[in-house]
């Protein structure tokens, strides 16, 4: 039933789908792959030596090197200005690039114009499948590496990924370069199989075909593009076998399948395969070496120094003229009525938002001018008021992403199957398990974050924030949704973290808990500091009683 060309086209379309997968794993939608493929295919066909003089395989290998280099370099040139774009804007920009390349190639003489270029056929089915195996191997090894987890984290929640110390721009660009190189590889293989390449081989329909194959197969499991390709390339064969020769059926079914997958099976066909989340034996954690610990600022040493800090949103003064000094080992409570400006202030301290006026110095850096991942690397870690977990990752994987800064890169060593990569991954997993144990979630390590209860999600955010071994831990309403027993346990945990030398900034509406946990409290109202002092001083401060305790939070306070 299957011809040789069916086998080759399954391999080729899977390789092309991997070039979409390369960026989809990082949550990016690029439609420029057909442009990379055609540039690479035509350039390699023009520059590679004649197979009659050097032999088929050497000629193909040289063409592959040229094509992948062309794809990668083009991706760098296109990626540098476009990596700031998100979602549909990136898709439109990359599609425009592919169309520009197509027009250029039609109008060049060396490409043969619209007629195209004849290329010797040297690709054998075994070569296509061997190359596909290598590409699939690359993405398999990438998946469970630190790099692969970082890309998954960016896909799930870019802001949280930044706050975990991941350099999002660099990761997105490297995924884009991989996509360019693999699309280039596809362009070369296509050229050296079909004998005659034409610009129309790399039009809009080709880009959509690659995207549909990757999405139908599944873009969160490395096997997805292969599954998608087998499935879609089989449609014409099945048609032929049952005697329906209509050419429109395959593209029609491909479009329909894409719609159904997006609506009912977002993980694609690959999500139907059983998934085995990573698990660490709880006993195994005992006696294991901890990952390197940073030296925290000593008692009295400056951790945060804010001078005249302000933040305006249009006419709203979310923060006004804030002076605040936090020193090593302090547990500082930040309280105030809803909308007082607490979250705005910690967003500026953690570098997520830029002050409108004043200066901020945090662990020697100036957040706002320093990138968020650099602030995280300096030792600032945080939780978010609205949960920002990586929903599709397990609890353990979430915390391992939190340990991005303390773990060592493993992807290249995983490709070479070096034992040290496995040891490093195990050490990071044990470190993550310890953090889960600290918040009492060790039993939930394999549970997907989105499937955890609200209280457990709050705890998981704390475990994830602890995994980077921070010097300054910012907790934004960590006790929200917790009962009194859980809030007491959290208070004890914060106390023990402070004993370990961490400095903690706690935003909480549960004033009883703040009074019990914090050594000093700052009260904000309408964006301004209205009081600072010990819990007793704050409780007896008339301005606080009026501004805060007199507000809707009075029930909590009493
Ligand atoms: N991105 C934004 N754009 C416009 N206004 C904003 C933005 N973020 C915050 N604000 C405004 O700034 C003020 C302070 O908000 P912020 O979230 O910092 O307060 P909060 O004390 O954390 O409140 P809550 O306790 O309800 O979380 C509010 O008036 C809010 O509406």
* Proportion in helices: 40-55%
Q: Given the structure, what is the number of helices?
A: 23
Q: Structural class of the helix and strand makeup?
A: alpha/beta
Low-confidence stretches: 551-558
The biggest sheet, with number of strands, parallel, antiparallel or mixed sense and barrel status, is: 6 strands, mixed
- Spatial strand order of the main sheet: 7-8-9-5-10-11
Mean pLDDT: 91
Total count of strands: 11
**What is the C-alpha radius of gyration, as a whole number of Å?**
28 Å
List the bound ligands.
adenosine-5'-triphosphate
Shape descriptor reads elongated
Proportion in β-strands: 5-15%
Distance between the termini: 79 Å
Q: Strands, helices and their partners?
A:
Layout: H1 4-24, H2 33-47, H3 51-54, H4 56-82, H5 87-106, E1 117-118, H6 125-143, H7 146-156, H8 158-163, H9 168-194, E2 196-197, H10 204-217, H11 224-242, H12 249-264, E3 302-313, E4 316-327, E5 331-335, H13 342-349, E6 357-362, H14 372-377, E7 380-382, H15 395-402, H16 411-415, H17 419-438, H18 454-466, E8 472-476, H19 484-499, E9 503-507, H20 511-517, E10 520-525, E11 528-533, H21 535-539, H22 542-549, H23 554-557
Parallel strand pairs: 5-9, 5-10, 7-8, 8-9
Antiparallel strand pairs: 1-2, 3-4, 3-6, 10-11
Helix pairs in contact: 1-6, 1-9, 1-10, 1-11, 2-4, 2-5, 2-9, 4-9, 7-9, 7-15, 10-11, 10-12, 15-17, 15-18, 17-18, 19-20
Adenosine-5'-triphosphate binds at residues 313, 316, 318, 336, 338-344, 385.
């Amino acid at each position: 039933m299957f011809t040789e060309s069916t086998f080759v086209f399954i391999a080729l379309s899977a390789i092309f789908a991997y070039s979409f997968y390369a960026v989809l794993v990082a949550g990016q939608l690029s439609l420029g792959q057909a442009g990379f493929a055609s540039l690479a295919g035509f350039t390699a066909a023009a520059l590679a030596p004649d197979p009659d003089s050097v032999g088929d395989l050497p000629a193909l290998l040289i063409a592959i090197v040229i094509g992948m280099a062309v794809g990668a370099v083009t991706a760098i040139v296109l990626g540098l200005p476009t990596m700031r774009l998100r979602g549909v804007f990136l898709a439109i920009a990359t599609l425009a690039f592919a169309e520009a390349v197509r027009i250029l190639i039609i109008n060049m003489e060396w490409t043969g114009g619209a007629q195209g270029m004849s290329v010797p056929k040297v690709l054998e089915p075994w070569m296509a499948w061997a190359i596909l195996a290598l590409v699939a191997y690359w993405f398999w090894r990438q998946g469970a590496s630190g790099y692969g987890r970082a890309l998954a984290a960016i896909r799930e929640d870019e802001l949280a990924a930044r706050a975990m110390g991941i350099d999002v721009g660099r990761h997105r660009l490297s995924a884009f370069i991989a996509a360019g190189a693999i699309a280039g590889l596809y362009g070369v293989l296509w050229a050296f199989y079909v004998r005659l390449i034409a610009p129309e081989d790399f039009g809009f329909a080709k880009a959509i075909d690659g995207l549909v194959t990757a999405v139908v197969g599944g873009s969160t499991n490395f096997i997805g593009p292969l599954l998608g390709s087998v499935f879609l390339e089989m449609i014409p064969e099945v048609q032929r076998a049952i005697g329906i020769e209509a050419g429109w059926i395959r593209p029609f079914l491909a479009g329909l399948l894409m719609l159904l997958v997006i609506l009912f099976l977002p993980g694609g066909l690959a999500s139907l395969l059983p998934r085995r989340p990573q698990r660490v034996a709880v006993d195994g954690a005992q006696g294991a070496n901890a990952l390197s610990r940073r030296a925290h600022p000593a008692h009295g040493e400056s951790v945060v120094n804010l001078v005249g800090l302000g933040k305006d949103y249009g006419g709203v003064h979310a923060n006004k003229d804030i002076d605040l000094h936090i020193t090593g080992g302090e547990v500082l409570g930040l309280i105030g009525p809803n909308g007082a400006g607490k979250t705005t202030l910690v967003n500026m301290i953690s570098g997520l938002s830029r002050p409108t006026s004043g200066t901020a110095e945090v662990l020697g850096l100036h957040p706002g001018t320093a990138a968020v991942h650099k602030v995280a690397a300096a030792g600032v870690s945080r939780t978010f008021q609205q949960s920002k977990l990586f929903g599709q990752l397990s609890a353990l994987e979430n915390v391992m992403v939190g340990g991005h800064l303390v773990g060592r890169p493993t992807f290249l060593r995983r490709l070479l199957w070096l034992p040290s990569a496995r040891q490093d991954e195990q050490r990071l997993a044990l470190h993550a398990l310890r953090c889960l144990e600290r918040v009492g979630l060790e039993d939930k390590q394999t549970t997907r974050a989105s499937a955890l209860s609200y209280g457990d999600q709050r705890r998981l955010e704390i475990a994830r924030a602890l995994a980077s071994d921070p010097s300054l831990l910012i907790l934004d309403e960590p006790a929200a949704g917790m009962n009194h027993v859980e809030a007491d346990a959290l208070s004890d945990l914060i106390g023990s973290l402070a004993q370990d030398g961490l400095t903690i900034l706690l935003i909480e509406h549960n004033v009883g808990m703040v009074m019990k946990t914090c050594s000093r409290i700052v009260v904000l109202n309408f964006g301004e500091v209205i009081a600072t002092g010990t819990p007793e001083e704050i409780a007896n401060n008339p301005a606080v009683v009026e501004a805060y305790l007199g507000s809707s939070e009075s029930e909590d306070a009493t």
